[in-house]
Amino acid sequence: MQIRAEKKINKAEGFMKSVLVLMLSQVFTKLLGFVYRVYLTNREGFGDEGNAIYSGGYQIYALLLMLSSIGVPNAISKLVSERVALGDNKGANRILKIALIAFGFVGLIGTLILFFGARYIANVILQIPESELTLVALSPAIFFVTISSVLRGYFNGRGKISMTAKAQALEQIFKTSLTILLVEVVVLFYGKNVTIMAAGANFATTLSIILSCGYAALYYKIYTKNSTVENKTIPNYKPERLSIILKRLLIVALPITLSAIMSTLNKNIDSVTVVRGLKTFLTETQAKLQYGILSGKVDTLITLPLSFNIAFSTALVPTLSAAIARKDIKTAKNRISFSLLLSNIIGLPCTFGLIVFAQPIINLIFPNAPDGALLLQISAATVVFSVLAQTANGALQGIGRIIIPAVSSFIGLIAKLIVNVILIKIPGIGVNGAAIGSIVNNVLVFLISYYVLNKTIKLDMKFSKFILKPVIATLIMSVCSYWLYIMLIGIMSAKIATVIAILFAVIIFALSVIALKIFTKEELKMIPYGSKLCALLERLGIYGKEEI
Fold it and tell me: Among candidates 85, 150, 173, which has minimal Cα distance to 398?
């Protein structure tokens, strides 16, 4: 019994180590992402207007990217993990080869559409003519992202999560350094031309993706050369027909892609409706500046928690797929419940932190462009529902209910479109209407996805554990950290006070989570180094020494 319990904990630790690796990678890449977005926003000649041009073009690129590749990693990860769980390594490799050809072709089509349709998209769809050059600069990236996505999905399915983490980190290092370099080169040769600066910044994205794709291809070459299990397979192996593999890939990839498209369309709705709506009572320049604040500053800040949480949705898909293939329903339930709890632990304090410290954070990060605090406070309410929906949708994909995320996202998208069109045109609301639309969208997506998830695989989600105690811990954090901030700004600069208060908030929240015993001892031991933490808490008398 003891041995079985230890094996269970070791498997859970393996899952959490994968999550931790991805999470650390996401933290690193997001911090680097902050560096170049802060640089661009504060760069003289760029600012909020440059963000509008940069983001408008980038969101269209992101949409075509979704069409060609976003469903690919999870689809391949799911199918490969199922094959590997059954010992069919040749089948897993065959899935990879077919996916490279099929999705590579789709990526090439996406590249051609963006390149040749750049002028129409910029002038007619976005109504930001300056973004044409940014679209052209981004067009080659779609093909290379598709190839890279196939390779990442393959290694995720094989449990090699570190490959994805390293590729993401390298891509962001290249992107940050090249963005700063290319923008400065543009300024040197063309002056402070915001259109060319924005195009240069987006071309840095293309170059970084090409380099990251090269790393993924090299990793695959080395892996296949050194692997001892690559060609081992189950007895009496019979390869599946090409048509069957393609069908299975599409059956999994299309619903996941549709779900991702809905998420990206959320931002495309903003890029299409915000400037249009605001121009009914503002000048075109003022409207672009408001959109620049939303897309360049607010979206950058509120998507930070999503980048941390995406580790759960990424790691859940192959883990749950393998568990379902082995008919291990209990493990699937435990993974889902624990991931939702941790997502809530991430989302709640981030939401309240952004609401309480909205203006201090903007002043700290964007000192040359300090507008947008109210918009950030309203948008912050989307964070907790976004991270929960992200995890719930990853769980649904892992257990085979892959169409539900697309359905819930579509319903949320329609609701956001309606709210945007109605509210943005009202002078007293303006761009805040887009934030309200995002709240409505994410609340609906989470509620629908969670309802279906809980109905499909009954979860033990107690109100006190999953809602009440995390809310109490968050309120304690908010009150204590803001009180400290008020005390500190009387004796030091507001920027230093903000940093200290935020660090204090993290510590207070962690201590509150421990004091309220939100995690059981078994759950603590699932976390990497959790056994050592559990032993420490036992010595402190917070947890008893009884057996789990």
Answer: 85
